[in-house]
Design goal:
Oligomer: single chain
Shape: globular
Strand order of the largest sheet: 1-2-3-4-5-14-6
CATH class of the largest domain: Alpha Beta
Strand content: 25-35%
CATH topology of the largest domain: Aminopeptidase
CATH architecture of the largest domain: 3-Layer(aba) Sandwich
Helix content: 25-40%
Number of helices: 13
Bound molecules: coenzyme A
CATH superfamily of the largest domain: Gcn5-related N-acetyltransferase (GNAT)
Distance between the termini: 21 Å
Structural class: alpha+beta
Length: 434
């Protein structure tokens, strides 16, 4: 699918005016202007409470910003006026949706300096991003969040969830397959390449995924210069019985001071193209000598790991929200996805920013794409906010759950029919932070 280029999209004039009235300069940072880009990198690190990045780290971050639409907010009265007091970066990424993919305005690097917090700068930047995305006719925005309380007010809702897994290896045992292929070590650069290749090959099989980028895989595998603990990061791949690459894993072992023979293995990324590859990599981690605990973040909520263990209770699972979405163009997102059952209902959507506000008839045939028509004045079957609608869109949460929590209102039959239509096989999942 051809993606429009976010870098060609103009700054939002409403936000520019709002920030100018605060004495602040809202402007684009050219990724080709290295001193300006490096200051943006320093401001982002400060915003995410990291230590001052070394020159090596700042330079290493440059390629990760290529192709992004970078925006800084500058305060000319600051003694460090060249360092933005707020930052945001965005690009347009295809997100996998049921039955296809759709351009998504990916928002990242949202920071506001401690000296300028709670003056409405993040609000101006976020609303500016959403208006810019809508002006570019991008139907959906997405982000991953530091805190679950920040983005609902802009109409974002959690749409994919992840599980943190912690396994007591002494208790776990193994009840899974005996893989036919082989696990082999890779150097850090080769691990980055293998992770990137496998992610690209598999991302369309998981609703909610977006593409990664080379620097992300280099960071995960420890190949990015200046990456903390890089020397401790190791990589392996799994090749199947025919010698084909089917899986890869980057991990780090943290030695235990108390009992060296019960050290901790932290999986940084585990990806398998086949169930056998995933099982083989899990088995490698769990049966690694001198390891007492294996920990992995960012696993899907339908992770089959406990079923691979002789003692499923050796695995402790903790689930949290991960990928958040914000619908901007309801007819476009409904037309882009397939539906599991026929539907014909009227929704009243509340959207304080106006993009999806209104009364809409949503129709689809089973297995078909949907159609949305504005029906102002029609009696709605279901009333909900755009954040809840955005959470429902990928099929990861049921309308019934949201109704029970008082997050939407409607007729029970209409709620059941919405759930039947939105249902997907396999939980939506996003395996990376962005
Ligand atoms: C989160 C952050 C960007 C907010 O910036 P800010 O300029 O202080 O936010 P604003 O003044 O524009 O606040 C806008 C609204 O969000 C709310 N808000 C801001 N930060 C919040 C937080 N951390 N948790 C909950 N609500 C928050 C404000 O109360 C305000 O609410 P209202 O307008 O509905 O009354 C800033 O605190 C920050 O940089 N934090 C550290 C980095 C981070 O977590 N970034 C987010 C990455 S996903």
């Amino acid at each position: 699918m051809m993606q429009p280029d976010a870098q060609t999209v103009d700054l939002d004039q409403v936000s520019l005016e709002q920030l100018r009235n605060e004495g602040l300069d809202y402007r684009r940072v050219d990724p080709a202007d290295e001193p300006a880009l490096d200051n943006l990198t320093r401001a982002i690190a400060r915003g995410f409470i990291e230590e001052e990045p070394s020159e090596e780290t700042v330079i290493a971050a440059r390629p990760g910003q290529a192709g992004r639409r970078l925006v800084g907010v500058f305060d000319a009265t600051s003694p460090q006026a060249e360092l933005p007091v707020a930052t945001v970066g965005s690009w347009i990424a295809p997100v996998t949706v049921p039955g296809g993919e759709l351009p998504m305005w990916a928002v990242s690097e949202v920071t506001v300096a401690g000296t300028h917090r709670r003056r409405g700068i993040a609000r101006a930047m976020l609303e500016g991003e959403l208006r810019a995305a809508a002006a570019a006719e991008v139907p959906l925005a997405g982000l991953t969040v530091s805190e679950a309380t920040i983005y609902g007010r802009y109409g974002f809702g959690p749409a994919t969830w992840h599980t943190r897994v912690s396994v007591d290896t002494r208790r776990a045992g193994w009840a899974g397959v005996e893989p036919e292929g082989a696990v082999q070590f890779l150097d850090r650069d080769a691990t980055a390449v293998a992770l990137g290749e496998l992610h690209e090959r598999t991302r369309n099989s998981r609703v909610g995924e977006i593409p990664g980028w080379p620097l992300l895989w280099q960071q995960i595998s420890g190949a990015k210069p200046g990456e903390p603990h890089a020397a401790a990061i190791r990589g392996v791949r799994y090749i199947d019985g025919g010698g084909e690459l089917r899986g890869a894993m980057a991990y780090r072992i943290i030695e235990s001071d108390e009992d060296w023979a019960r050290s901790r293995l932290e999986v940084r990324h585990l990806i398998g193209e086949t169930p056998e590859a995933r099982a083989a990599l899990w088995r490698y981690a769990l049966q690694h000598d001198l390891i007492g605990t294996v920990i992995a973040q960012l696993r899907p909520v339908d992770e089959p790991l406990p079923w691979l263990l002789a003692d499923a209770r050796a695995a402790k699972l903790k689930t949290a929200d991960h990928g958040w979405l914000r619908i901007l163009d309801l007819p476009a997102v409904i037309a882009a996805r397939s539906f599991a059952a026929p539907i014909d209902i009227v929704l009243r959507v509340a959207d304080s920013l106006g993009f999806t506000e209104g009364v809409w008839r949503v129709e689809a045939a089973a297995e078909g794409a949907g159609r949305v028509t504005a029906v102002p004045g029609a009696e709605p079957d279901i009333e909900l906010g755009v954040a809840e609608l955005s959470s429902l869109y990928l099929g990861g949460v049921s309308a019934r759950s949201l109704a029970e929590a008082g997050r939407l209102r409607g007729d029970a039959a209409a709620i059941a029919s919405l759930d039947a239509a939105l249902h997907i096989a396999g939980a939506p999942f996003l395996s990376i932070w962005y």
